[in-house]
Amino acid sequence: MNISCRSKTMDTIAARQADCPLKGVSGNIDFYAEDVFNTESIKQYLPSKVAAKLLATINDGKPLNETIASDVAHGMKEWAIDHGATHFTHWFLPLTGSTAEKHDSFLEPVGDKAIMTFSGKNLIVGEPDASSFPSGGLRCTFEARGYTAWDPTSPAFIKRHANGATLCIPTAFCSYTGAALDKKTPVLRSIQALSTATKRLMKAFNQPTGKVTVMLGAEQEYFLIDRLYYLHRPDLVQTGRTLFGAPPPKHQQLEDHYFGSIRQRVLKFMTEVEHELWRLGIPAKTRHNEVAPAQFELAPVFEEVNLAIDHNMLVMEILRQVAERHGLVCLLHEKPFASVNGSGKHNNWSLLCGKVNLLDPGNDPEQNAIFLTALCAMIQAVDKHSDLLLAAVAGAGNDHRLGANEAPPGIISIYLGQQLNEIIELLENGNGGSSHHKASQLRIGVDVLPPLPRDATDRNRTSPFAFTGNKFEFRAPGSSHSCAGAMMVLNTIAAEALDEIAAEIEKFKPKTFNAELQTLLKSIIKKHKRIIFNGDNYSGEWRKEAAARGLFSSPSALEWLKSLTDRKNIDLFEKYKVFTEQEISSRHEVFVEEYRRRIRIEGGIALEICNSMIVPAVVEQFQKVTSALLNAKTLKMTGTSGLTELAKNLGCGIDELGVKAGKLEKALKNNRPEDIVKAMNELRKIADGMENLVADDAWPLPKYREMLFIY
Ligand code: ADP
Ligand code: MG
């Protein structure tokens, strides 16, 4: 990176740091959820009868009473105007994986003047032109109409900007025929399926069936780098990851970044992010330095899954926006930098019926019987559909992360922890004799499990799917992903397992209930225990072992995606009304196409950077060295072997760059993702070698040791 640019960067950083430490921040949290149309604002802005009906829909899942729509719309508009809004938008989650919004103002001209209006119809449905969103053939361009439908279970909120604000109404997005074109619709359907199955199970246990709530706590990892570096990296700008860059001598090997003291500039950024999130009622709770240099994490308090998914989309947006205001860039890509850790999004998932968390080992035999049943259901679900869990996290970015040394490998297994594993073994081996589990047997409905200390259950960070005390933590989703796909799959496969198990339990006779349950759970464990693995998932032995166990494993994201359209999975989605066959096939098409496009973009920009930045820099260096060599020889000087060697290496480098670039160009023409990736990797290897031969001030790209350490 050339000197003038670098010194400019340094000046800016110095100026910003002088601005620290934090000024004028108060500990007041009164503004929490100020920008959310929540229960409090609903009661304040709507007539009490209307408010009661709306709250019944939100809290108890009662069908939306359309007759109240215009009253709700009016109240919501008044509230929004009081918060500075002039526009509204139906906010939705298209298949691009990001969020979409098309703003309309409340304005309506009346004679020479204008008034602000918002009708019930405008609240309930929108008709954005959908022709440019991916639909996988679900909708022809000539019938481009797409519909957005209000999701009252995720509250409307205000997005502010320097000159005003917009009322955002979370919506589902579907085609004219009602086919899902977004990520929210299937999640809502999967929640419905899981709710029905959970109630069926609770009923089979003769337990009260309260409202079923699926919970999600999404831990978000990200990188921050100085914006000036970013602007000089076309690869980051275009793809979100560096396609070139030699590993610096010091990266993360000293393990000095994880939980380290947070730099002032970053703390300032984090604080502003949290303030923005709190205003939106997003309960940001935890912040810390992550393992890689310049890597961080934000974790909110868990919430109802549909809301948590929307909130995580906003978290990503706000991280990006606030970073920009601080002269930083937030990188959400799964692997922005080779040779250091990538970023994931750990999805902590649990399931409540009424106040009972089915994944919480309780204090009495009944609760424990339910807990063990739910646990076995998850073992069955994950074993039967590990392919779907991988399909849900497949992507061009996650390809670089999964299986690398810091992230779970592309093989799904469940980690239970030693204590719980022992209990599962006792259950498997038990035959109903002794009443105390310490005596090599466990009798369901009789024994009370030892309290499982939550912290002791999980210190295995290598597992993709870990039981962590009272929830499962799905660690494979990528940092840039929406949680929607992973949660939709998890809900659906859990629904199937709970439903199937409930169907068996319903056949039990009251007298022999416990013994029959014991037999059922035992058979589930026997059949599906191959999915349990408590060792080191990073080890080579595990790969061999997993293969011997016949667990689903494939290095290719395209193979993972293919499983979406396997007959067994289509049947599953259709049975639980999460997708029609047509919807799932179209999704498969969209995701495969996205994958291919991303790889093509990477290949294209890698080629451009090589030809227009790296080769010219190496040629310039070659010229300098050869003219120095010529001078030395003209002056008949000794000591020219170093120059000769350097010139040779640079010359060969230019040759090799040419060869590899040619290969990449060919791969791009043939458009086979695996060939493009291979050609990019080969090109990178040569280019990264040149980085160490070319003068520092002549190297055209900011280096790893700059981007990761100077901010
Ligand atoms: P760690 O990094 O040790 O896994 P964090 O505190 O960073 O822990 O994140 C844990 C996440 O799990 C948080 O978002 C937290 O709110 C969430 N969580 C805690 N209990 C539950 C639960 N019962 N169901 C779902 N999520 C939960
Ligand atoms: Mg964490």
Structural write-up:
By secondary structure, the protein is α+β, with helices and mostly antiparallel strands. It has three domains: 6-10 and 30-182, Glutamine synthetase, N-terminal domain (Ubiquitin-like (UB roll), Roll); 190-242 and 253-579, Glutamine synthetase/guanido kinase, catalytic domain (Creatine Kinase, Chain A, domain 2, 2-Layer Sandwich); 596-707, Up-down Bundle (Four Helix Bundle (Hemerythrin (Met), subunit A)), CATH 1.20.120. It is built from 23 helices and 18 strands. The strands form three sheets. Strands 9, 10, 11, 12, 13, 14, 15, 16, 17 and 18 form a ten-stranded mixed beta sheet that branches. Strands 1, 2, 5, 6, 7 and 8 form a six-stranded mixed beta sheet that branches. A two-stranded antiparallel sheet has the order 3-4. Helix 9 (264-279) packs across helix 10 (305-325) and helix 11 (365-384) packs parallel to helix 16. The longest helix is centred in the last third of the chain and has 54 residues, at 581-634. It is globular and about 105 Å long. The two termini are 16 Å apart. It binds adenosine-5'-diphosphate and magnesium ion (MG).
Could you provide a short overview of the structure?
The protein is 48% helix and 13% strand. The protein contains 23 helices and 18 strands.
Key traits:
Ubiquitin-like (UB roll), 711 residues, 48% helix, Creatine Kinase, Chain A, domain 2, 6-stranded mixed beta sheet, binds adenosine-5'-diphosphate, 23 helices, Four Helix Bundle (Hemerythrin (Met), subunit A), alpha+beta, 3 domains, binds magnesium ion, 10-stranded mixed beta sheet
